[in-house]
Predict the 3D structure of the following.
Amino acid sequence: MNRNGPLALLFHALFVVFMAAPLAVVVWMSFTPDNLLKLPTTTLSLRWFYAILDNQQFINAFGLSIFLGVIAATLAILLAVPAALALSRYRFSGRDGLVAFFLSPLIIPHVVLGVAFLRFFTQAGITGSFAALLGSHVLVIFPYGLRLVLASLTASDPALERAAVSLGASNWTVFRRVVLPMMIPGVAGGWVISFIQSFDEVTMTVFVATPSSMTLPVRMYHYIEESIDPLVASVSTVVIFGTFLLMFLVDRIYGLDRMLVGPTK
Amino acid sequence: MLRMQRFFLSGLAMTKAKGRNAPYVLSLPAVLLFAALLVVPLAMTVVLSFQNYDLNTGAIEGFTFGNYLDALGDPYYHTIFLRTISIACATTILCILIGAPEAYILSRMQPPWRSIFLIVTLSPLLISVVVRTLGWALLFGRNGVINATLAALGIGGGPIPLLYTTHGVVIALVHVSVPFMVISVWASLQRLDPRVSKAAMSLGASEATVFRRIILPQIIPGVLSGSLIVFALAASAFATPAIIGGRQLKVVATSTYDEFLGTLNWPLGAAIAVVLLVVNATIMLTYNNLLERRYARSTR
């Protein structure tokens, strides 16, 4: 039947090793008791995790990234829900163009966006401000949130809404009692993916952030540019496990494979 | 004519009493955000790329093609553009060779394993690219994990150069972008009708024939759209070539960064960014058209 042969399984095993290797090495390295970048073999130590607590720059960047991600994801979803309702429940002229417009940040290289934002924010005199970071992040993560909200709305059956209307429900009641409950998984999944995208964004943010307003990936990037030591590995390990935790949550709320591959199944 | 068409379309819409302005009102906030934070900044960048540059005052008013002539005429930038394109091509080819078979293998797995390994394959997408690149930097260094292991096993003659090399950048970029290829091919595999393969088998076709004559032609569009995404990502990648490539191996994205935050020649940096945007968009559109035409022909 449709079984993978031994060669296919070997290929698959090598592929999984390839995908996991860099992450595994980072986690392993972060438990080293030494000052050198040598994989620990005999003893493991948490000293580099305690060292994070002494590094105010990483702590601040961590806090900024989480705060920025939460606010940006919330704003992006608040904008995406009405837009998704418009795109999924109405046929109107310019609809296809609007979809392309809303998804365009996915296609424009983030370097180009970074350059454009740097120019724009400099002219506006708000370089490095939280508002600048927030605005640029909302724009970049908007398509991710929109896609999931849109997917959950298109998957739901509009006949239910018509049934509610025919039974005398007002527009607001239809939204609150029928549409809203159906799109909650999409909204929650969309919020988490937006948060992750904001938290991970580096290519665009590296242009927009100033030394006093560096997000975690930007701070890590500049740190790695200078030197690589076990400290940055332990920070990365915290990021990796934090992301795993979020993935677990997404899997419970929305289905991780559905979010990653799209609603094809 | 347009009015009639619009009337006809709105007649097709689900009957909601709110009228035809509702979709525009609903999408207005997002449109305003995009106008202010996407259209205006991009337009300003295009304007900037045509401005003069002065060593002391920076960008000054005026209109010149000089920045584009500099960016496209200077052998220094030729090297950078060529390097970027060859890195992106190599990454795309490797992603096809690795990602497409992996998607096929995943699709043939039994239920519990299938979604487990799908998540294992795709979840690195959610982890910061800086973290993933750090992993490769740790593996690649002169005394990094790969060379230390080889030395400990007594294989090879001395350390293999991986960090600060083009092939090192390509390997790390393949890791970053191969999940997109898997997603794309996976999606086209999901659209296959298993009955066609079964019909072919029942008519005596071998498994290899079924793969070559039935499955392969149908996943080609998935492979092509996957390569489109991978190419665009690899051509505009920043953090990976910056960390693995180091200061010597400049690509378009990193040299744009240098112009903006190092040498502060903003008009030139803007011109390079616009060239990157235009090249990227052109490749995507041509490729997309090609894809649609081929796809339309093959399904006819």
In short: Chain B has one domain: 67-299. Chain B has 13 helices and two strands. The two ends of chain B are 32 Å apart (CA to CA). Residues 67-299 of chain B form a domain with the MetI-like fold fold (CATH 1.10.3720.10).
